Records
---
Amino acid sequence: MKTRLILNILNQIQEKIEYFPIDISEILTESSALLQRDYPNLHITGIIDTYEGGLEFLKNYDDKKNLIIFLGSSFGNFTTDEGKEFLNKINSTMKDDDLFLIGLDLVKNKIILENAYNDSQGITAQFNLNVLSRINDELDADFNLNNFIHYAIYNENDQRIEMYLKSLVDQSVIISKANISLTLKKNELIHTEHSHKYKLSQIQELMHQTGFKIENTWLDKNDHFALTLVSKNN
Ligand SMILES: C[S@@+](CC[C@H](N)C(=O)[O-])C[C@H]1O[C@@H](n2cnc3c(N)ncnc32)[C@H](O)[C@@H]1O
């Protein structure tokens, strides 16, 4: 959906658009087919690889100016060091006149954040528990999903949402294909995800440290989320 918003604008200003989505998941094939159906003038080269692998492929692809986009705050899942490494990698992939657009979730009221990760429809809970289903299916494990609940809290010191699966009972689990057997106590937590939040001043600092110059920043009306456009700081 987010990519389509950008394609709709680009469609108005250029006749042909080349698009190189990078995703480690084969879902890329399906999502690219849907985009192709709706945007006949879009030329899609899907790269099913890690972000790093995809960027390496793009580095020497051609001389055309690129806009690299990384939306949706996936960046928040990185630790500070991983994030810097990732930005350095993007920077070293870019040609001098390329641009990079990144979405980052901003520090905000703890209650707003915790409500977002404990949504009333339980979608984040399903997403979190899904990791156990995947381990059951793919690694032949015997997690009983009824024995866990989704648990998400905001850690103000570290400016991050921490997502866990909480064991509701004392239990043991076998993950056959990984040769792992584990015991969990009641209330013991399995850490599944961090989602870091940023202040605008931290975004500026991060970008300067990793060799970027900020061209523009857009905020929503509540200052909850930032889209930052940067170029290489030569
Ligand atoms: C939470 S989704 C976010 C998607 C998108 N950024 C958005 O906001 O709509 C994460 C996506 O990133 C992909 N992914 C996760 N880690 C990856 C990696 N290291 N390299 C490439 N793709 C990755 C997953 O397969 C998944 O499709």
---
Amino acid sequence: MTTSVSNRKSSLPPLADGEFILGSARAMLANPIGFLTEQYLKHGSVFRIQAATQRLTVIAGAQANQFVTKEGTNHFRSWEVWHPQDTEFGAKSSMISLDGADHAQMRKIQKRAYARSAVDGRYNDILGIVQTEIDTWQPGQPVSVTAAMKRIVTEQLGQITTNTSPREHIPDLLKMVRTMLFVYVTKQYPKIMLLDPRYQRSKARIVNFVREMVQAHRDMPKGTRAPDLIDDLIQAQQDDPKFIPEADLLFAAMGPYIAGLDTAANALSFILYTLHQHPQVLEQVKTEVDTAFSKGDLTAESVRGMDVLHRVILETLRLYPIAPALTRTVSKTFKFDGYTIAEGTGVLIGTTVPHFLPEHYKNPHSFDIERFAAPRAEHRRPGVYVPFGVGSHTCLGAGMAEAIIMVSVAGIIRGAKLEADPKYKLKIISTPTPSPDDKFALKFLGKQ
Ligand code: HEM
């Protein structure tokens, strides 16, 4: 039985441009979304890429995103792509590696802790963490933005999702997460990198930190504060110990850092970049932020009122997607745009390709926050705006990410006078999530 979105005759999908032996590896490393978009425009919505040892069939475009939304659970599995990462921690599974009913159950357990509502009432904590970072900046000196955003976001995620400060462990978390993503997800590093003693030491210290954090939660009398991710995992383990054995619980406790650290921090870096490239928009955001703070402490309502800032975030995530594509394995053969894609095929879903197509976005390569305002609302068509993924694994932390990002940008703008370096030319690096390179710095002129 196959599912089809077209009647065209099947044949092997075209092979994307590539070099001898390396295939598309270099182009995919240099600019994955640029390459996927170019190949989509050349070959259409289905093509194959060979990148060094990896062979993947790409499906891309708004129709592909709609297909995954409607039919994804019937035709795709996450298991092969994500399960190897579980084994690194002796876990039998994790939310991102599970499929079907088990995935739905795991998502339900962790949903509350990752929801936007988990940030409500924590705005002053988020702002306090931003201010602590600003207090370390020296007037007249450049601030290396991505590194600073990683320090801020790590602490925020730890406080909000686990009521625990990971501050002393930031270098270990960064080393561990980065190595794991490179080896297991993008496969840019060989497995031998996992034997690197520096990685091993970082991992051991993080496992120890997480173990102590879980024990501290077990020792805490119930009802002392609102339950967080760790409390919910402990409760779920008590309800069904086979579903969440101890190793799985410890791995899930690292989830906010594995899923949220690079993604939210890199998004913040790009947002500070775009804002400082567009001084008029920055001025509008400053006015909005001042208005919001003039009413007292930030509230969910005053944050919602920062419409220009919200559109800056939407536009930055469109133009600089942090998760440009998703990898899956076909669990049941299907037809797409005339091609039969067989069970067992490795698939790359080029989710954010539509972000760069003129049929959806006017001048897609230019930064334009008006495209999100009525009546244009260019993003409000199915499958064309996909920064947080599609299908059953769609980002569970999207609401939380948006709230953290909005409040953090507001805190930075309110707390610090920053100046762009006119000589800086944006270079995007993938480590492996895309971010501005280490040369992206803003000069700290002083506190506001
Ligand atoms: C701008 C920032 C972020 C972006 C662009 C982003 C993007 C994504 C994408 C594309 C996926 C789907 C992965 C897949 O299907 O293979 C995902 C999954 C996920 N994200 Fe995010 N994310 C962001 C921030 C966060 C944050 C801050 C958290 C929480 C602390 C978070 C938690 C998660 C979780 C738990 C999943 C797995 C959901 C599941 O497997 O069902 N994300 N994210």
---
Amino acid sequence: MEIKVIASPKPTYMELYIDGTSYHLLNALRRAILTEVPTLAVHDVIIHMNTSVLYDEELALRLSLIPLKVDPKDIDVLGKCRNIERLDLSELTDCTARLRLKKKNTTKDKIITVYAKDLEPIDKKSVRPVYENIPIVKLGPGQEVDIEIIAKVGKGKDHAKWMPVSTLGYKPLPILRVTDTTKCQDCNYCVEACPKGVLKKEDDTPTLSGIALYLCDLDRICVRACPHKVLDLLESENQFILRIESVGQHSVIDIINAAIDILSEKYLDFSKELQSKIRDLKEA
Ligand code: SF4
């Protein structure tokens, strides 16, 4: 397998070229990232006071979608809390954090905005929103909110608020073929039809090469534009481009590594269970 980093402008975004894998492996990785890699998110809210224009439920919903980050010394999200389903009640507090949102507009004539940065950690002091300038609610003169919050480590399979990524997808590289070169006339219809302008003629043959392989979005407009029906566009089964963008709680590298560890654990569990059943069968 060959992997090249195409772009990684920041720790939360990466594009990879992968040669020598398959849809099945990449999809297993994608699903493990979406559903199994845990993050910390607001789970319970106790509203002591809310005189803002937002309903309590709407406030709770907004709070739950604020991505939170925490120092692993306070909450080991990708370590100990990765198997939160297997922890007993006494250990669960290691994977939760308490916060408070308390704000009152004491001005006489101004409207103020409550932001994510106004969240105050109570027990685990390193818990902070990933982005401090997310607006939560506006308060008119005299209005206030006082909310107690319990954040918990969870997984995307239970709720999208725990998903660690905002973008995650892969696309196969295109394979363009002229099925009958004798019929491929000098008409240029396919080249002119390509909305991305990436299809070029090389030696009188429509060709995708270099950056065009990356930019082609496999919409097959060129194939449909060919009046002689001799153009074919296939999807590679072992060359892919993977794009992944973290919401910000973990770096992309940490997310991929955690997903691989989780998948390995699952396959090991599966293998052990299978071996024990085979042993039982032999002994019966
Ligand atoms: S599939 Fe679409 S983007 Fe790709 S070469 Fe053909 S027309 Fe252009």
